[in-house]
Amino acid sequence: MTSIDAPLPPLLTARGLRFSRDGESIFGPLDLEVASGAALVVEGGNGAGKTTLLRVLAGLLDASDGEIAWQGAVLDGGRRVAGSIALLGHQLGLKGDLTPRENLRFRLALGGLRTGITADAALRSVGLEGYEDAPVRTLSAGQRKRSALAALLLSPAALWLLDEPYANLDRGGQQVVDRMLETHCLRGGSVVFTSHGLFTPGLSRMATLDLGGRA
Amino acid sequence: MRPGTPSTAALALLRRDLLLLWRQRADALNPLLFALMVATLFPLALGPEAGMLSRVAGGIVWVTVVLANLLSLDALFRGDAEDGSLDQLAVSGQPLALLAGARILAHWLGTGLPLTLVAPLLAYMLGLERAALPVLVAALALGTPLLSLVGACCAALTVAMRRSGILLALLVLPLTVPVLIFGAGAVEAAATGGDPSAALLFLAAGLALALPLAPLGCAAAIRIGTA
Q: Tell me, what's the ipTM?
């Protein structure tokens, strides 16, 4: 038996992370650490750099300073371990002319498939039954968000980077996100997500990083 | 095939793009219709004198193909950039050059290949020497993939700009000049009884060079574009 208190290795660590664009500092320098099974909420007002921080962590932007390490190994620039990160951005990465099912089929071929789940099961659990074969452009903003959440469910990635996961969702959708975050953390996965501070899921291991910037 | 491997990902991207091409087939026809319209304008402007038209027919077909191809380039990565698909490709950790290659192949299948197939019809309409038709098709079969490969690098570079319009044309056209010269040169040589093989070999060499290099350049440009 391993002790429950045994420290799990931090999945993602960042030291002295700073990002500036055209000489203007967007965020940092900041340190952060996300352990397996833990969540990190990035809070801050509009323009505080929440999205930028997420994009730096995802490797889409190069940090101006500092280093990011994955399971202790320092990462080189934008290079990330294949299948290690799943990203849910403001742009959901769905094709409007394809159906949710077709979008998911592409995404799982691209990012891999977690064992024990199928595209249809994922669509059912985000409440998109009956919409599997409707083109995504005919769906509402909330339903599109749910489709993107389904893509997240399929991903085998250990680290989820979610930009405003609660935006556009109704009460039921917000509960879906809460449930997804809980299950993912219980499974040993980690989450970094941004929020205006309006929603907080009931997660046992959750830390907050405040970027400030609120009026 | 196992999901999440590079080959599965590239095949899935190709499949997705071809499916999108089919769903948006009215838009996909635009370059073809454009080429047809431009080629139709020449006889109206130059007069119906057959000798004159047939002398320039090869050049006209090549210019229409280059312009029609240019027309389709801006959309190559723009849609993916705007809806976040490009971010998903970059975050997946799959070799971006391979994915870019799949994207370029889909572009060629949707633009270059149909143009190559329609070109003999345009050339016939303009009165090109019968003997030069096979050479025209061969030159286009070598040249249109080259146009897609070179164009894709430029399109990836300009994708971060909201409206790239004329800038994309300024980037692409100088790079396509050699393709145009050798392509039209091959047809010209064949129509006047010369040997087109030198020009065709230059096109083939260009294609052999661009096939491995352009996807790499494209991947680097996409990384710059998402930043």
A: 0.89
